């Protein structure tokens, strides 16, 4: 019988104060990922941001620093945001899962990223919903399939809908932002070097769609 995962719900305080939420996330035991990670990595950015960017989970560097998108994928994302004309300081960035999931190879100490399971994504979702309620963004950008499925459902196919302007499923959320799904910046880094420029341009094109939506909201 599969182990029951309690989920984050009981650890999420009833507040829209992001710093209180971030502090509380340090004590979350909603799934087993807190056991091996250094700390939970909560979102960062302005509570009044128009745009919320959501990735998969913190990586090795984010786990050590306690901040999202500070490693190589974050640097690439920064470049793509600049190329798309979006000010990084004007967005809120976070992840679908707040603790780093990794495996240790038999030899060597480098921790290797492991994709969180659907159960872990669902367990962590109350934190993401609390962030959405607190920031109330006009536009949500889902970076990669894990983030996209966390909000749009397990049947969502990123390859079919990337770059489109979507909405959240009706009736499930207290807010109704525009939603754009695209790839996670780490996929650009992981792809074949000869395709990297093209993959970066495709990510930037999707973020240009977001920049257009921001202009529509007067930002
Ligand atoms: S990954 Fe999410 S649900 Fe699991 S312990 Fe960390 S904060 Fe809690």
TrEMBL record:
SMART domains xrefs: UDG (SM00986), UreE_C (SM00987)
Cross-referenced CDD domains: UDG-F4_TTUDGA_SPO1dp_like
Gene3D superfamilies the UniProt entry points to: Uracil-DNA glycosylase-like domain
Domain Uracil-DNA glycosylase-like, first and last residues per copy: 42-208
Biological processes, Gene Ontology terms: DNA repair
One Gene Ontology term of the molecular function aspect: metal ion binding
KW Hydrolase (keyword) present: yes
A Pfam family hit: UDG
Keyword DNA damage listed: yes
UniProt KW keywords: 4Fe-4S, DNA damage, DNA repair, Hydrolase, Iron, Iron-sulfur, Metal-binding
Family assignment from sequence similarity: Belongs to the uracil-DNA glycosylase (UDG) superfamily. Type 4 (UDGa) family.
Name this protein carries in UniProt: Type-4 uracil-DNA glycosylase
Top-level taxonomy: Bacteria, Bacillati, Actinomycetota, Actinomycetes, Mycobacteriales
């Amino acid at each position: 019988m599969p182990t029951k995962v309690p989920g984050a719900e009981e650890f999420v305080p009833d507040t829209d104060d992001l710093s209180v939420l971030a502090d509380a996330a340090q004590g979350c035991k909603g799934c087993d990922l807190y056991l091996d990670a250094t700390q939970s990595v909560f979102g960062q950015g302005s509570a009044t941001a128009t745009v919320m960017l959501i990735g998969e989970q913190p990586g090795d560097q984010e786990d050590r620093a306690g901040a999202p998108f500070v490693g190589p994928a974050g640097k690439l994302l920064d470049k793509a945001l600049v190329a798309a004309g979006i000010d990084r300081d004007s967005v809120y960035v976070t992840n679908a899962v707040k603790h780093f999931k990794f495996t240790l190879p038999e030899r060597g100490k480098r921790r290797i990223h492991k994709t969180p399971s659907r159960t872990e994504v669902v367990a962590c979702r109350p934190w993401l919903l609390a962030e959405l309620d607190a920031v109330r963004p006009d536009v949500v950008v889902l970076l990669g399939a894990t983030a996209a499925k966390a909000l749009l459902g397990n049947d969502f196919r990123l390859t079919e809908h990337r770059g489109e302007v979507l909405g959240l499923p009706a009736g499930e959320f207290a807010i109704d932002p525009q939603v754009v799904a695209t790839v996670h910046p780490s996929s650009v880094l992981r792809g074949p070097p000869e395709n990297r420029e093209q993959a970066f341009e495709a990510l930037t094109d999707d973020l240009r769609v977001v920049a257009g939506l921001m202009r529509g909201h007067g930002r």
